[in-house]
Amino acid sequence: MASILDKINQYTEELKHWNPENAEKVEEFRLKFLVSKGVLKNLFDEFKSVSSEEKRALGKVLNEFKQRVEQAYNEKKEALGTTDQDKKNTSKIQDLSLPGSGVEIGSRHPLSLVRKEIVEIFKKLGFTVAEGPEIEDDWHNFTALNFPAEHPARDMQDTFFIKKQEGNDIALRTHTSSVQVRMMESGKPPFRAIMPGRVYRNEAISARAHCFFHQVEGLYIDEGVSFADLKQTLYHFVQELYGEGTKVRFRPSYFPFTEPSAEMDISCTICKGAGCNMCKGSGWVEILGCGMVDPNVLENSGIDSKKYTGFAFGMGIERITNLKYEIKDLRLFSENDVRFLNQFHTELL
Ligand code: PHE
Fold first, then answer.
1. Residue 332 pLDDT class (50, 70, 90 cuts)
2. Residues lining ligand 1, judged by CB closer than 6 Å?
């Protein structure tokens, strides 16, 4: 085995003839001599095991050799510049003042935005928010709401039944009116609440219909609540949502759970009543159903209909959103196409 001194002499000879022509050769030199498993480190490791006498003589030689290696490297490095790899590394961090790459943030779904807006308006009028199950029994979705068994009114809503059950089938709720029943059953009047949520109807999916959609229903029950309260509440709601000056009109209608019942139209938000595609030229668009809660419904839920009266209303959030953003195809709401969703990026409130 060659002694340390022999090796130093041999490397010193090599060093004399070392004349690198480019930066890559300088880098090769560094990798041979200066890295943690390189020549210098190995020599110093070997040096540890020599006798202390030898150490005295050899220490100086070794240190001088080390300085020569480092000096040679530094000189050539300076003269020949940096390697391609170095250039790549430095170009990456060239300008530390550049802004960082942005972090993408999501946006609220248009239906969530509009639901939130609706909820805020009613909250200011003292309405609380109530929720209930999407899988409902016949009693809460139909019977308690005055849809008698076998009554044709049940066909008004095509229902997804889940399970046949003697006298009380299980289904996906077709409206959030079921939450009104649950609320009345479990508490005492007065009630003033809105019920947002997803509902299901067995309809073929198209631009104008879907097998699920979203509703906000409302219920107000107390002593002496009248149709005038209903009208004023909904009138206020429309002014807040679509702006001052939006007109409303009520048309007589039929729902099993309200008497009298009405549908409410507003002046078309797109053409302001002049007539357009959205309102089919009429200047009016329907936005909700409403009415005075039928005394049968109150009694079914254990509320004294002689003492209390109330009103209820229900609207589809998709419909309200269409009239705000002119979204013509219902399917867009559930396809989760980011090109659609990104358009609501600015509306993060
Ligand atoms: N539940 C009705 C529907 O889904 C809407 C409605 C609610 C109508 C309350 C009147 C009163 O169509």
1. very high
2. 175, 177, 217, 255, 258, 289-291, 312-314
